[in-house]
Each structure stands twice: as structure tokens, then as C-alpha cells.
Input
Amino acid sequence: MALTAQELDEVYTRLCYGLSEAGEERTPAVLARLALLLMHEVGDAAVVSRAIDEALAPSPPASSS
Output
């Protein structure tokens, strides 16, 4: 049930535009609400916990090609 690359791109783009429309002040609240809604949809505490750990981990440095 994973998103295709195209679907991921489309929903990420929708989120970015939505956050731009929401504005800088509302963005944290929108993201918090989205996280709670998605946690409820996932319905598995272990999966959600792993995703939280991944999100909090330092991002690898961008490759300079």
C-alpha cells in the first residue's frame, strides 16, 4: 500500500502549496494536525514510532555531484 513515486510527488507538492497558503504562522499547527491525523490512519504505534525516529535523525549530507 505504499505510494508510487508519482503519488508521493503529488501529495508532497499539495502539502507544500497548502502550507504556503496557510502561512508561516499557521504552518506548525497544520503540520501537528496532519501528523496526528496520519498517526490515527496508520494505527500502529510501532510504525509511527519508527517514523518519528527517522524524522528526528540527522539528515545525511547532500552529495555534491
Remarks:
- The two ends are 33 Å apart (CA to CA).
